[in-house]
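Example (one chain per record):
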Amino acid sequence: MYIEADAIRARAALIAVTMAGTLFAGSLSARDLNRIESINVSARGLDLTRDADARTFYTQLQNAAWVVCTRGVHVGLVPIDNPKPCVDKALGDAIRSANVPLLTRIYLGSHTIEEAAAHGITLPSQVAAK
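Predicted structure:
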């Protein structure tokens, strides 16, 4: 049990919320449009098998996705007009990368199974059976 929890924490500590291929307006070449920005989000000190800790970490992922898509370092680039698709992608990708059943359940509280599948999120067996 302790080894499992440690493995989950270690994997989750490596999660990065990332925005790739951002669409920006302006007269930039195609190579300049494909930018990757990320914020590392650590689960250090959190037990992601506990609901309260998983919700805390999920909120941190949401906040990081929002920052990357709205306030990230876009030197010389025009900000995104509609950050919602970017935030949804960044959060979905982070949840998929974490692969923590409790985080997936929290994600499914505000997203559909179809949205989860679009990001390659593996559904916990209890949720998939519903």
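Caption: Residues 2-128 form one domain.
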